[in-house]
Structure formats: C-alpha cells, structure tokens
Design a protein that fits this description.
Elements: H1 18-27, E1 44-48, H2 56-65, E2 70-76, E3 96-98, E4 106-110, H3 114-129, E5 135-142, H4 154-164, E6 169-174, H5 184-197, E7 205-210, E8 222-223, E9 231-237, E10 244-250, H6 259-264, E11 269-273, H7 284-292
Helix pairs in contact: 2-5, 3-4
Length: about 290
C-alpha cells in the first residue's frame, strides 16, 4: 500500500520469522504444508453507531467489511441520533447483550449512548485482544452528517472517542435515498475507505459523507471544508405564548465546494474535524496523498 511518509503504520513488527523458514523449506523441496505459517494480523476495527445495533446500514456494512478485517461491534441498543458526545443516563448497571450473526467476530448491544457504546467497545477490545483497535469507525449513519450538523451527531461523537485514545476515527454517513439501506456502490466505497484508513496511525477524525450512489473509488473522494451554517435552528412561539416550537431547516443553497455542495451533487466528500487539544495538526495534503494512492 502506498502511503504518505510518517503518517502510516506498518504491521512489520507483528510478522513472524516463520515465513523465512518456509522459504528455506520450499528451496529444499520440503512440502510447504509441513510448516505452520503465521500471517500478519488483520486490521482490528471497532465499529459503532448512533442508529442502534439493529440498523440496516450497520448490519450490511459489517457483512461487507467483516471478511477483510478483525471486526468488533459495540453499538447502542436503540436509536440515539443527535446525542453528539452526551453520556446520557450512565448511572447504575450497564445492560450489555452479545449479538450473533452480525458479520463481526464479536458484537455487543449496549443500553447507553453512542459515546458509552464506543467506550465500552474500546474497553472490551483491550480485554479480548490485549491492545486497542487500529481504527474506530462509526456508522454508516442513515442520513448525512455534513456541515455544522456534525456538531450534534452521535455518529461523530462515537468516532471521536477513538481519537481521544490516540486512534484514527472515521465517521461514515450516507445520504438517504427513496429506498432504505445502502447501495452496493456506497457499501464498496465505505469498505475501501475503511481498509485504506487501517494504514493510518495519526489520531485524526474524518467525517465522510457520501451520496447513495457514489461514483468512482477512494481516489475520487474529495477533501472539502464543512459548510458551517447549513443547519438553521430556530424557535417559534404560538400567539398566546403557551408553547414554543423548534424549527430545524437546511439553508439553501449550500456554499459552493463545501461538503454539503459536493454530496448534493453526487460526490463523496471528507472533512477533517477538529479535536481541540486531543489531536495534532494534520495537513490536508496528507489525506489527499492517501486518497490519491488508491
């Protein structure tokens, strides 16, 4: 895998000396089947979301990604959309259920917010594998989290928890179509980007939004600045002042070239989200080089 200098990790330290011994056996004419070959471990991925463990997007994506990585799922037991980084009602015993037939090695349903579900997943991965995952993914969300909508997203909140532990975090959100679920094109592109991110070691938070039918591959994803004024939140009081209604709207048109504009025009887009003091400055050029290498 081609990767920008100093920003990617190597699994070389995990490699066994057995492949060298196997080469000697082959040169000597000995059957390769007599030797046990230890391959470098697969990328260890923690997958969470805010739509809940029963989300069709989560299940389809897990089945699509699972054969290529060591996948662990830790997701809320129900929909917690719009929770951002809220802890929710965390007091008391945490209800945890293990789920089967998800496409993951392990899958856990957590009766808690996306942040708690992601934190539990990080803790559980450490107990199961004696190390942290290589990558934390949140989503794929049913609907976009573009522009300033990312501030309120539980999808973003879950991905941010990995970055807080020094890991790369990838939030995936798919624009809604008329039909539920993800198209093959959206599943393929999301999987390929996830596998690309497995080579990254920097604690960077990426917000990936894509249309329901994206065109091209990873190298066609565009780096974009988020439209930070697209979500308009207001309030309206009735005439007698007895009640107030929340008004949520999208500003039109989107800022040209922003993540919102790109996705609305059928183009997948990535925005780097700030992590305050939790992550170093990351050059946009690095991400451009990473995407362009595929």
């Amino acid at each position: 895998m081609n990767c920008p200098k100093l920003r990617c990790k190597s699994h070389a330290k995990h490699r066994s000396v057995i492949p060298v011994a196997l080469s000697i056996l082959l040169l000597a004419g000995t059957s390769a089947g007599a030797a046990e070959v230890m391959k470098p471990p697969k990328c260890l991925v923690l997958l969470s979301n805010d739509d809940g463990i029963a989300s069709e997007n989560l299940r389809d994506f897990a089945l699509h990604l699972g054969p290529h990585v060591e996948l662990v799922i830790s997701a809320p037991n129900t929909n917690y959309s719009g929770m951002s980084s809220a802890l929710g009602d965390w007091r008391g015993e945490l209800a945890v259920s293990q789920i089967e037939d998800t496409g993951a090695i392990y899958a856990f349903s957590i009766a808690a917010s996306p942040v708690i579900a992601a934190r539990f997943g990080l803790w559980k991965v450490e107990r199961l594998y004696h190390r942290l995952p290589d990558l934390v993914i949140s989503g794929p969300n049913d609907g976009t989290n573009w522009g300033n909508a990312a501030r309120y997203s539980g999808t973003i909140g879950a991905a941010r928890e990995g970055v807080g532990r020094g890991l790369p975090g990838l939030a995936i959100s798919v624009d809604r179509d008329k039909e539920p679920g993800m198209t093959d094109a959206a599943l393929d592109l999301s999987r390929d980007l996830a596998l690309t991110m497995c080579a990254v070691s920097a604690p960077i938070l990426l917000n990936f939004n894509l249309p329901s039918e994206p065109k091209g591959g990873v190298s066609d994803i565009v780096m974009a600045a988020p439209d930070m004024d697209v979500v308009q939140i207001g309030f309206e009081m009735n005439e007698d002042g007895s009640s107030t209604k929340l008004k949520l709207a999208w500003r039109e048109p989107a800022i040209p070239g922003s993540d919102v504009d790109l996705v609305q025009n059928g183009q997948a887009a990535i925005a780097i989200l700030p992590m305050e003091n939790e992550q170093p400055k990351v050059e946009a050029q690095f991400i451009r080089e990473l995407l362009g290498a595929h």
